[in-house]
Amino acid sequence: MLFVSTNWAIRAEREAVRAGLDVTLIPTPRDLSSDCGTSLRFKWVDREPLLRLLEERSVRFEQIALL
To answer: If you average pLDDT over residues 43-60, what whole number do you get?
Structure first.
């Protein structure tokens, strides 16, 4: 999951961890984006719960890319 800023990535990680989701902050691959250097890696099976959580918490992200 890519973000427009590191602050959003950190907030997303914090909310996901609090909700019990298995997530990790990783460096954003340069071929995906040059905007924010931090992305959130998560299990694809957790996609829907993560999206709902971030929407509920008003956490903005830019896009989701499969690695």
So the answer is: 97
